């Protein structure tokens, strides 16, 4: 008889320890409060005594459901790694999680406000199911405790999106790293070209009106072909350089090439000026000095050193 009572005591103790193992909530209060924190109604819940709750809370405008409870692990207050309330629509299967604030002692608080829920859940007229989920790492058994339901008295219907986002190919993205150069209107370019040509025509007319002696040109070219080629070539080179700068050349390249053409043009101009003086006066170059055919006048040498070795 004594052995029978001992066996019953051992079985009851093991069952009690098994029932108290894992996570549980005690001293739970579900209060329906307003914006001024005035309580409209309060319901008590305890996972160790009540498996679940089927109470429905009717939440109006400006009201919320405040939950206060204590988390316990193996019968002692503790802080779990995860503690939140699942708000689920049983018709569509949509759900959202509201995270609870838990202290080290296990005391927790969470507010369920329909205004903070996603639009698909806030616009549901049917009651939403509340489930408290508590879990932590280790061998402790997690807890899923149904707190009841909430019904929104004033549901807000979500606005339909005009163009809902869909996964699919998007239009190709094109990027222009450097836009094309904007050219002026053609009529303006033709006007400037005509002005340049008119300047050359005016130069030719001026030469004709001033009785320019073009008969000396063959004699000058024959007397100094190198200097003439240098001078005339530098002029043509400058015109070509301006054209290249307008089309594709950079400023640095233009300055370097222009400096070289300037030196060539200066040397050719000095030699050309001296040759023109000789051709007009019928003189010959004799070493470092120039002597006249008519009166043998001595003419001092020019400053260009290249003519001494010509």
TrEMBL record:
Residues 177-267 form the Ribophorin II C-terminal domain. GO terms for cellular component: oligosaccharyltransferase complex. Residues 1-18 form the signal peptide. One of its GO terms (biological process) is protein N-linked glycosylation. The chain crosses the membrane at residues 187-210, 222-248, 254-270. It is found in: Endoplasmic reticulum membrane. This is Ribophorin II C-terminal domain-containing protein. The keyword Membrane applies. It comes from the Eukaryota. Its main location: endoplasmic reticulum. InterPro entries: Ribophorin_II_C (IPR056790), Swp1 (IPR008814). It is a multi-pass membrane protein. Keywords: Endoplasmic reticulum, Membrane, Signal, Transmembrane, Transmembrane helix.
């Amino acid at each position: 008889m004594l052995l029978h009572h001992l066996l019953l005591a051992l079985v009851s103790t093991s069952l009690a320890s098994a029932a108290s193992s894992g996570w549980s909530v005690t001293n739970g209060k579900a209060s329906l409060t307003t914006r001024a924190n005035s309580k409209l109604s309060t319901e008590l819940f305890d996972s160790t005594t009540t498996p679940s709750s089927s109470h429905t809370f009717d939440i109006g405008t400006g009201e919320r459901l405040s939950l206060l409870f204590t988390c316990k692990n193996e019968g002692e207050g503790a802080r779990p790694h995860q503690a939140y309330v699942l708000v689920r629509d049983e018709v569509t299967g949509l759900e959202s999680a509201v995270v609870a604030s838990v202290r080290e002692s296990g005391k927790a608080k969470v507010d369920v406000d329909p205004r903070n829920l996603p639009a698909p859940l806030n616009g549901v007229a049917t009651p939403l199911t509340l489930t408290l989920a508590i879990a932590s790492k280790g061998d402790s058994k997690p807890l899923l405790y149904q707190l009841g339901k909430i019904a929104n008295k004033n549901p807000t219907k979500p606005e339909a999106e005009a163009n809902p986002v869909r996964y699919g190919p998007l239009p190709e993205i094109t990027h222009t790293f450097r836009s094309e150069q904007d050219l002026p209107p053609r009529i303006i370019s033709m006007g400037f070209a005509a002005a340049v040509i008119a300047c050359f025509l005016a130069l030719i007319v001026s030469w004709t009106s001033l009785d320019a002696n073009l008969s000396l040109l063959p004699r000058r070219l024959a007397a100094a072909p190198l200097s003439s080629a240098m001078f005339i070539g530098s002029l043509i080179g400058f015109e070509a350089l301006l054209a290249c700068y307008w089309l594709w050349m950079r400023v640095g390249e233009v300055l370097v090439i222009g400096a070289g053409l300037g030196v060539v043009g200066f040397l050719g101009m000095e030699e050309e000026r001296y040759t023109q003086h000789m051709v007009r006066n019928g003189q010959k170059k004799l070493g470092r000095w120039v002597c006249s055919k008519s009166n043998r006048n001595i003419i001092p040498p020019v400053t260009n050193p290249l003519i001494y070795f010509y």
